[in-house]
Amino acid sequence: MTNYPTKETNTKDHFQLSTATIEGKEFVLDRPEVSCFPQLLPFQNATGPDNLEFTNTSTSTGAPELDELAASGVVGILMDTNADEFAWLWCPPEDADLAKDMDFRVIWSNREAAATGSCLWTLTYTEVVVGTTTLIDPATALDTVLVNQADLGAEIPNATAYGTIDGGTLSFTLGTDYLALKVEATTLTTVADVHLIDVKCRYYRKYLGVGV
Fold first, then answer.
1. Given the DSSP bridges, would you call strands 75-78 and 84-90 parallel, antiparallel or unpaired?
2. pLDDT value at position 133?
3. Rounded distance, CA 128 to CA 102, Å?
4. Which of 131, 154, 189, 191 is the most buried (most CB within 10 A)?
């Protein structure tokens, strides 16, 4: 299929292309990556929020804080104690194909020099059907879990390898229902000022393709 891009010939940080064959016809399918993190983090300034604490009073652990990253003027969530957790609701894109894998990775930083330490993050989830599901502590593990990652350097954003929810696992209604997501700083090893910056999701779009 020389006239159509494939994953091998056209891959960008935010947009990946792959191919599929359906009834003898080859289709182009793309896999966008989007942020699934809540947009509650403003830029830091002289009068902006500093050390705003998210105190968990029920099943979650720790007291992560809204905190400036180094002297950048940008904020993240400070999670520098083992088992610090942060949970939120996310409405996945309506064009996601739930029959295919959905991949997640954590973006984070710390103040230590490169390869000084590492962080093991854990991402769990619960499907939330509006009007039906009682909100609970998200506790379902990814089918492929996140793995421990060495830090890349002081105040440099790190991106974990992808963890995955297998295709066919989720059954809620897109555009109406939610995933409750929870990130835990499970094991911090010789790292300090660990900040959760973002959580990203890579998914397959449904019904996108050009037959040839």
1. unpaired
2. 94
3. 17
4. 191
Residue type, 45: N
Q: Given this model, what pLDDT does residue 193 score?
A: 86
Structure confidence by residue, pLDDT tens digits, 156-200: 999 999 999 999 999 999 999 999 999 999 999 998 889 999 999
Residue 11, both tokens:
């891959």
pTM: 0.78
Q: Taking Cα atoms as reference points, which of 103, 108, 100, 76 lies closest to residue 188?
A: 108
Domain ranges of the chain: 37-203
Structure tokens at 62: 């720790």
Q: Which two tokens stand for residue 195?
A: 């900040």
CA distance 199 to 21: 31
The domain covering 37-203 belongs, at the CATH homologous superfamily level, to Galactose-binding domain-like (2.60.120.260)
